[in-house]
Amino acid sequence: MLRLGCLLLTAWTALNLAASAMILIDTLWLGGHTPALHAVLSPEAVAALEPQVLLTVDSIAVFANGMNAAFSIIALVVVWRGLHRARAKWAYWGLLAGFTAAVIAGVAADSVVGWAAPQVNVISAGILAAGFAFAGYGLFGARAPLQSRRKH
Fold first, then answer.
1. How far is CA 89 from CA 9, 79, 98, 140, 151, in A?
2. Which of 20, 27, 35, 104 could form a disulfide with 65 if both were Cys (CB 3.0 to 4.6 A apart)?
3. Over the stretch 19-39, which tens digit does the pLDDT of each residue have?
4. Apex 99 CA angle, 10 and 121, nearest 5
5. How many CA atoms lie within 13 A of 65 on its CB side?
6. Minimal CA–CA distance to 121: which of 102, 134, 96?
7. Is the pLDDT of residue 152 over 80?
């Protein structure tokens, strides 16, 4: 069960890392703009924005997606080295806190733009809930190996 939970957490993290990397590449090197603009504005409205506004929005997007990519890389290490390999309870609780904060930030961001993609939040939360349920059962469940019951 722990392995299945780690695989689900990895899938969620890898999808977030891929999305952030694509946004960073598009914004930094391909001359694109953050997809958030296109989620709430028509192509005509985006084209009508002043260059300083676009630069500001793109700058925030680069920072946020860079932080998301960094968080994802760290999370992958903690999932596989701390949670799966070492069966460390601190890794479970740290990941739960970090991923919960990420989901809350995603929901808050979506609410600011008028719920442009609520289905993404529901699917995201569902994948994480399943991942943590399976990982938690594998780590803390009644049939968990004795090693995982030791205090970490």
1. 15, 11, 14, 9, 8
2. 20
3. 999 999 999 999 888 888 887
4. 90
5. 24
6. 102
7. no
Q: State the Cα–Cα distance between residues 50 and 142, nearest whole angstrom.
A: 60
The per-type count for the chain, helices as H runs and strands as E runs, is: 7, 0
Residue 30: strand, helix, or coil:
coil
Mean predicted confidence (pLDDT) in 42-60? 90
Residue indicated by tokens 């809930």? 129
Contact in structure between 139 and 87 (CB atoms under 8 Å): yes
Using an 8 Å Cβ cutoff, are 27 and 33 in contact?
A: yes
CA torsion, ordered 119, 63, 95, 35, to nearest 10 deg: 10
One-letter identity of residue 119: Q
For position 146, what pLDDT does the model report?
54
**pLDDT tens, position by position, 59-88:** 999 999 999 999 999 999 999 999 999 999
Q: Per-residue pLDDT for 148 more than 80?
A: no
| Residue-wise pLDDT tens digits, 112-138 | 888 878 898 999 999 999 999 999 999
d(CA 110, CA 117): 7
Token pair, residue 48, equals: 């009508």
